[in-house]
Structure formats: structure tokens, C-alpha cells
Amino acid sequence: MKKLDIKSIFDSFNNFNILIIGDVMIDSYMWGKVNRISPEAPVPIIMSTKQENRLGGAANVALNVQALGANPILCSVIGKDLKSKTFQSLLKKRQLTNEGILEDESRKTTVKTRIIADNQQLLRVDEEIDKELNKEVESKFIKSILTLISDKQIDAIIFEDYDKGSITPEIIKSVVDFANKHNIPTLVDPKKRNFMEYKNVTLFKPNFKELVEGSKIDIQKGDFEGIFSASQKLDEELSAKHYLITLSELGVFIGNKSSYKIIPAEIRDIADVSGAGDTLIGTASLCLAAGMEPEAIATISNLAGGLVCEKVGVVPIHKKQLEQEAIEKFS
Questions:
Q1: Domains of the chain
Q2: Which position among 23, 27, 155, 278 bears the catalytic label?
């Protein structure tokens, strides 16, 4: 790879507006201690000592974009309920705009509650409605997104799909068509429901499992030629410019219809892989907006994903730390 002025590139991140469309949620945590078993059923009784709510899902991508110095604009549909007030207050606390957030009385604000005792997760309770938006809300949401893109200088658009219904095929087509007409790069972190709907995007980022399921080709994670063949098969339907496929301990694959490159994973003390994909696509969006070449985008994004795996829990990337590692990598 050619030598890059990493400092100038990272400084340029501060000028970017990144639109993030997707499923947002509240990650709720309850910590406590187990002292006895319930007399009502053979289950532990948790004496709660601490509770905390955090932004999750697509909102965690926004936090990573913000941590790298850019301005994230989050677009999602949440419920109009008590939890929506909690979500809105979390946005305010983290100084994130809510101008792209719609509230819908027919939906429920997604909350994932994790109950943890003695450093072990005992239970997770999910509160959600994952059906697609109704046509009226979908139309209103599309209009809101396209207005934001028209009114602001948007440097990249991320689709962060968790299969909770905020992203529909019509939303994808409307936004991608509009973005391509205005030369705005689009990136996708897909899930199963809309996997084959993301046509003509700039960068498509499935993980290995999603690639195998989406392409319907049985391959091993270390079979890089097989992964390339799978991405080529996928390209017949999607026609993305680039495919960035995460391979966990094997690093990342970056390719197009004619060639590919494997960026090996860095050797690290892995503490927790939670949120690594959010960090990776957030970083990739800024590198793409900065005009970097695909291999360099994959390399820096791979570094970012690895760095957050050294931290326990879902945490945003540390910009200075990533910048220093990138400088060393490209020097």
C-alpha cells in the first residue's frame, strides 16, 4: 500500500456529515448479586445493585462516527411510548441530533435488557415489534430522509440493518437511487430480511455467515478463493462497487467483481467482540468519504474493529489510538 498522510485524512473526518439509517434500540443493563434461589421456582433471585441504559443498534454506529470527529445524523422509527422518552434523552445526553427520528404509536421502542450477576449474563429480555413499517409511516420516513439529504451536505450514508423493520425495500431503493444521482457513497451492514434488496450500493459489508447464507455457497472461512466466488455470485444480483466481508480472527476480505485482497487480523488480547461491526462500518464510511482506496479503507476499518474488541462491552472507538495505529501501519 502506498504511504498516506493519515493525520490529514483523520483531520478531514471532522468536516463530514454521515447519515445513518437503521434500527435503533436501548441496551439496558441490570447488575446485581445472587444470594439465594427463589421459593417460587428453581431460579436465582437477583438483588439489583445498578441499572444503566445505553444507545444501541444503529445508534452505536452513530456514537462511533461521532467519536471519530464527524457529525452523525441518525434516521430511524421508534415507538411513541415511555421508552421513546428514554431514547430521546440518551440522544440529548450524547449530543446527537434527533431530527431524523420519527415516533410511531403503532410501534414499540426496542429495548434489550441484560441481567448480569457475578460478571455472568443470566438472562436477556427483548421488547420489540419487528414488523415492517406501514405504508403511511414508510412514506413519511422516506420523505424525511430525502429532505435531510437535500438540505444538508451528506458525505456518506450507512444502512445499519438489524431486521427490526425500520428499513424496507422501498426505503432502500429510494435512498440509494437518490444517493447515486448525487454521488453520495452508500454503505450497508445487512441482515437476512433485506439482504438481496441492497442493489447498486458503494460498499456491501456482510459477515462471513451472512455471505454464505446470502450467496447459498457452502465454503470454509479460510477458503479465500471460495469467498471471492461467493462475492462474485452475489454481485450478479447486487452490483455493489466493493464487498467488505468480515472474517473475525482471519481479518477482512475486500474485493470487487474482478479482484480481491485479504487484510489479516491484528494480534490482540480480545476481551469482547460486541459492537466491532458497528465500529468497522462507521470507520469505513469516513474513509470512503475521504476518498481513500478500498484496500486502505479495509485496513483502517479492520484496525478499528480490532481495537474495540480489546474493551469490555459495546464502546466507541478512540480516535487518537486508531490514528496512531494507522500511522504506524502506513509508514
A1: 6-31+46-330 (3.40.1190.20)
A2: 278
